[in-house]
Amino acid sequence: MPLLALLLDALAFGLYTLQPAGGPATAIGLALQGGLALILLVMTFGYKGKRLGWFNFNTWAHNFTLRYAIIVLSLIANALLVFLYYLSFAGLNNLLFQ
Question: 65 vs 3, 52, 84, 94, CA distance in Å?
Answer without folding.
Answer: 14, 5, 28, 36
